[in-house]
Specification:
Elements: H1 3-9, H2 15-71, H3 76-111, E1 122-127, E2 137-142, E3 157-160, H4 178-184, E4 189-194, H5 204-221, E5 229-233, H6 235-246, E6 254-257, H7 276-279, H8 284-292, E7 296-298, H9 299-309, H10 311-324, H11 326-340, E8 345-347, H12 348-359, E9 370-372, E10 375-376, E11 386-391, H13 399-409, H14 413-418, E12 422-428, H15 433-438, H16 440-453, E13 463-473, E14 480-487, H17 490-494, H18 503-531, H19 534-542, H20 545-551, H21 560-572, H22 582-617, H23 620-625, H24 638-641, H25 645-652, H26 659-671, E15 676-678, H27 679-691, H28 700-716, H29 718-723, H30 725-728, H31 732-746, H32 754-766, H33 780-783
Parallel strand pairs: 3-4, 3-5, 5-6, 6-11, 11-12, 12-13
Antiparallel strand pairs: 1-2, 2-4, 7-8, 9-10, 13-14, 14-15
Helix pairs in contact: 2-22, 3-10, 3-11, 3-21, 4-16, 5-6, 8-18, 10-11, 10-22, 26-28, 26-31, 26-32, 27-31
Length: 793
Amino acid sequence: MTQDQRFRNEPHFSPDRWAAQTIADANLASQQTGRMLLALSRHAERLGRDHSARISGLLGQTRDMTARLLKNDAATLPQLAFAYAQDAVQRAVLTLDVLRRRGNNDIAHEAAGTPPVLDYAFELVIDGATLPCPVNYMLLKIRPPEGSRIDNTKQPYVIIDPRAGHGAGIGGFKPDSQVGVALHAGHPVYFVAFRQHPEPGQTIADITRAESEFVKEVIRRHPHARRPIVVGNCQGGWAAMLLAATNPSLTGPLVINGSPLAYWSGRIGENPMRYFGGLFGGAVPALLMCDLGHGELDGATLVGNFELLDPGRNFFRKHYDLFADVEGRRDAFLAFERWWGGFHFLSEAEMRWILEQLFIGNRLSRGEARIVRGHHLDLRLIRSPIIVFASRGDNITPPQQALDWIADTYADEHEIRVRGQRVIYMVHEDVGHLGIFVSSSVARREHTEVANTMETIEALAPGLYEMVIEERRGEGYDAQFVVSFADRKMSDLLAFDGDRKDEADFAAVARLSELGIELYDVLARPLVQSLVTAQSAALMREFHPMRLSRRLVSDQTPWAGAIAAAAQLAEQHRAPCTADNPFLAAERLWADAIEQMLDLWRDLRDTGYELAFQAIWGLPILHWIGRTHDFRRSFRSHDEMRYLPEVQAILFNLERGGFAEAVIRMLIILAGTRPAVRRDRLMRSAHVLGHDEPFAALDPEKRARLIHEQTVITTFERERAIEALPLLLRTPELRQKAIDTVQYIAGAVEEMEPTTIEALTRFRRVLGLPSALVVPASDPLQTSAVAAPSAAA
């Protein structure tokens, strides 16, 4: 009998039980103290490192400015000061005029219904409002620019934009974007956008049904293409995962960019956004805002929260950068602000589901989320390859939140293989959250290489991989990179975290948030809803600080005419000062100092947030309250998975098959002999499996099933699988053709790992062929057809 069982059987007070509980609480308090000290030390180290370097930079700027001042005599300085003052006043007036135009753009954009801010022409394919369960989503077809060549037999792209307060279009609001990359590669592109207000009664389940209808329509329009590639940006990422989990056979590869899926994850001393739910009352404040908004949550509140994450950038630097180069940055500023300020709304039902199932409850990655009553969402049901793009510089979706769902969903990398899944991740070193979607350099590198990889990904053996991009050759869309897929283990993912024991704090937040919602529903909600009217909600929206700050500098205000006239005058008499003006250097020094001051305040605030969260939610009594929500999904061990009925059925056919099974089996074994697979090898493999007989006769689903079956066989019975090769290749001609095909795909012998050469030598010995490795110069299956029967076919 275990100690816990013995304690449960004791009906009365026990000294042993009291002592054990006291020791456990003391250990918990000690661990929590250790985590707080670790958080404090990491914050202090980062504060010291970052801000000391920036202070050194400011001192260097001060010395440079002083040297510039001392170069000039007393007669020259007044002239330089006047030139700078004239330039600064003109820039200030022009900046005010840009802000005025921004306000006007916002008003016109909202009056037009906040259409998507796409840089491309588009046509409406399906309006979600006309579906049986109406939603405010719609499917758009992107019209390619003039001169573009689109191949309708290529896999279509379906891009799902995030709906987190902003409007639609961030995935294609400039030429160097996800839309631009896909069009350049010749793919048809569809875009899932949305209107400003949700349809009455709209739920997440309704949206998922609508998106499945959108994908079905894309498939109907492209009957000769493979299943669509679905791209999900940020919140659109979990929407894409819901779509694939509820419709496993509907989608092609999933590309998930900067998408949070494991919401409790993060590193101690970093990622402060994950603490907000615990510090600000769980889900109740959001539900209160929905009620005050007459059933809708104003997206301006969400956008305001995003801005508070980086106040130095959002409240000062982006405006100073505009002021510093108003002519050069004006158009880009207005284009981006049109999206940033196009505030959209979420229904109460949507917001409650997002908070309970995702942000606070963290149920999706743990297999506990329900899209409708009685239907649990299981990400293991997804059959499409999944590509995850994260960044260490992302302060909204750090790598832990983008990747830990993999460890929460699968027992280990072996289960990923056994289930026939391919999970590929890519981690950028420094790009920020928005940069994942809007950065031109990211579009030309990461998104372009992901698009190029789609043609080869089906030839990749099931497993967990990291996509590594190296060596640039060329420029723009024509740039070439060396891409490889490194075989990874689950421990490589968990290395991003370190210790996940702090997630017990978030379990307590989830439990008390649920209790708070129940109390609010029963005690306060009827009163709040009875006091709110459509008119009061509209008034609250109009006076929201995010909206009001923009409207105050627009043509709706009495001083707008004076700003426009002054800007016209400044344009006519524009006199920019020279770049070496010392007062311009002083301005930059002032701006950098202001930004650093705001960043220092942010870093100290985040430190306080984390320490306060840990001090409150790390208490033993709160851990006890949250114990019902602190669990991990139960997994089968590797040995237990061997005895699953589907695995046993596959192993039963180990000695059955033909040429196709033998070639794929050998390729999978070779893939396991090297630490990474280069894309050139995958391209040869994809060409053979997609264009040469007998593989070309297999449809994509049968080909994927064949690869899955041979992966299971080589995972559990590698030695028997090799020894059984002669039973699959019964004639000397077939054996020679098979080994030639495998060696052609493997590539040059001098580039092979010693373990790869050893495996090829063993294949030849088992098949009774000469041991010399001679790589064919061309595809062996292009010269003569192989008509061997295949069990999979």
